[in-house]
Amino acid sequence: MNRTTLITLKTLTWIACISPFVMLVYEAVTNTLGPDPTSTITLTTGYNALLMLVLSLAITPLRLLSPRLSWLIKFRRLLGLFAFFYASLHLATYIGLYMNFDLSVFKTDITKRRFIIAGFAAYTLLVPLAATSTTWAIRKLGGKRWNRLHKLVYFAAICGIIHYWWQVKPGVKSPMNLTITLCVLLLSRPVLAYIQKVRARRAVAV
Ligand code: HEM
After folding, report:
1. At what angle do helices 103-112 and 114-131 cross, to 10 degrees?
2. Residues 39, 98 contacting (CB under 8 angstroms)
3. Binding site membership of 75 for ligand 1 (Cβ less than 6 Å)
């Protein structure tokens, strides 16, 4: 992949990732967030946080599928950081607009409402990942430890999916697409790792 194509793709990814936020700002300014603006903001930020998290998890399986896709690694951090950005906005909306900054209500919610517990678990798992996303942190932790820590992303995504299912009304199936995608990605990891091992063994034998 040449430099110009990479820059173009990165710019397009940036535009795609930032556009839900730009749309929210536009709708807030023009007063078109709908009958329940707080809910619109919470649902949009929550959905995009989870979507970007799941998309970031697709990068490694795609790279394992074909060495020609190794350039995709440059997009994993971008997607992960945008997921954290939307998750932070989501939490800030909840604390600011739903709770009116009343942390005692938040404390009760966090112990009593199971979907909030799952959401909080997902967010808590994302914090160390975002904090160690810099090249400096990778160097400081060392590749092995950094990789082990970043396996937490799978648990964050699983908690996010549980949070999503527990939040929708009974019978609503909107979390299904992301759930299936996450399951496929999780199952593909060991399968692709095995295929890669077989390929490497064959290459040594030749
Ligand atoms: C302490 C952390 C969190 C709190 C308090 C929280 C709170 C909420 C609330 C109150 C809603 C429902 C909004 C409504 O019905 O108006 C919601 C929905 C949602 N949240 Fe969270 N959340 C948290 C963390 C997360 C994280 C980390 C993710 C993603 C990784 C996430 C993804 C979602 C999704 C996907 C929805 C449903 C969106 C939809 O129906 O389209 N949440 N959350």
Report:
1. 110
2. no
3. no
Protein residue with its CA nearest to atom 31 in ligand 1:
46
- Check residue 202 and give its pLDDT: 87
Q: 197 C-alpha vs ligand 1 centroid, how far in Å?
A: 39
State the total domains in the chain.
1
- Ligand 1 centre to CA of 95 (Å) is 12
121, exposed or middle or buried, with CB in 10 Å at 0-12, 13-18, 19+?
A: middle
Which tens digit of pLDDT belongs to each residue from 50-105? 999 999 999 999 988 887 888 898 899 999 999 999 999 999 999 999 999 998 98
At residue 39, the pLDDT reads: 97
Q: What is the span of the domain harbouring residue 36? A: 3-198
State the pLDDT at residue 146: 94
Q: 203 in a domain, yes or no? A: no
* Residue numbers in the chain where pLDDT is lower than 70: none
Would you say 155 and 182 are in contact if contact means Cβ atoms under 8 Å apart? no
Q: Is residue 204 part of a domain?
A: no
Q: Does residue 134 belong to any structural domain of this protein? A: yes
For residue 40, being part of any structural domain is answered with yes
- Decide if 167 contacts 115 (C-beta within 8 A): yes
CA Rg, the chain, in Å? 19
